[in-house]
Amino acid sequence: MTVLYILYSSNLILTDDRKECNNTISTEENIVTSTNLSSTTASLQAEEPEKFETAVLPHKPKNQDLELKHIVFGIAASSKLWEKRKEYIKVWWRPKVTRGVVWVDKSVRTRRNEGLPEIRVSGDTSKFRYTNRQGQRSALRISRVVSETLRLGLKDVRWFVMGDDDTVFLVDNMVRILSKYDHNQFYYVGSSSESHVQNIFFSYAMAYGGGGFAISYPLAKELEKMQDRCIHRYPGLYGSDDRIQACMAELGVPLTKEAGFHQYDVYGNLLGLLAAHPVTPLLSLHHLDVVEPIFPRTTRVKALQRLFQYSVKLDSASVMQQSICYDKKRFWSISVSWGFVVQIIRGVMSPRELEMPTRTFLNWYKRADYTAYAFNTRPVSKHPSNIKI
User: Fold this and answer.
1) CA triplet 361, 366, 370: central angle to 5 degrees?
2) Over the stretch 41-83, which tens digit does the pLDDT of each residue have?
3) pTM
4) How far apart are CA 147 and CA 381, in angstroms?
5) Angle at 86 between CA 85 and CA 89, to 5 degrees
6) Architecture of domain 68-257
7) How many other β-carbons are positioned within 10 Å of the β-carbon of residue 203?
8) Superkingdom of this entry's organism (predicted)?
């Protein structure tokens, strides 16, 4: 019998007044196991007369000096949805700190001191053919956001990050992740969809634009030079991100995957996904108008404000990072998604099970079952004794 207590309060998670939880059920068993392993290792070492030098592999260059000012965001927005979706941008945007531009299809009403980025109208795309009957011509405009942002001639730029108006970014984590890469090289960094069907239909080699992707400055320059000609060659593609990927393929640049970008091609509750986040900094959340609020009994925007005002502000690198421990006396398995949720499960579940997302969400293709996800999942227990607090 499993009892699931879900504590949505960030304050409870962030408090320092808590007991230390051991990661093992039995310390004595670990000591015995460790002793046995040490004895075995010692005997193996005694049998090895030869010693070999450890090969030292060269390290990739890192941008230790990368700062937020070196990253420029290009945000694709719709004038029809602007009044609603600008509230998402306000959640993560830092006036006079973050750099970037919102690109809209036509002029929108602006107010002073709203705490928003500069707003510009995208260039005319009427010269491009668009033949996909299921899509919209706005894909042409959105696909050129990075190139149009580059043409503004902003100084001291190392990376361009593309995203939608219904996406929130964790900008400090973006700096952490992009610091791993040499911005002087060609890099196209992003992630795939949660839907296997989507990835098959479009491509596993494509960065999904809603979840966001990053392009190094030299690559953005090469893209800008050839993008219009490239777009002419693919009138039948559906969206903006597949057009970007088509141009990247022509440039010979593969996708570098970072699991912190989240397209969230799902419906319903993100609890299962966020509670078992990959071991990597959270970079983005997309489709915020589609999924339920990340915290219950509040609006989507207020739920995000709560996350950013407490958890993200205190320690953005740890947000959603899962820790697993056990209470031997109570026979509990405990999973903590930092800054978001604590799950207490009666009985012992292995880490292998706990790190697998529970299916609190539905597939983007509603007729598809759990086999249509691009990752492993586990069912939500429907036992009547389950309690949510």
Assistant:
1) 55
2) 444 344 444 454 554 444 555 566 999 999 999 999 999 999 9
3) 0.82
4) 48
5) 105
6) Alpha-Beta Complex (3.90)
7) 18
8) Eukaryota
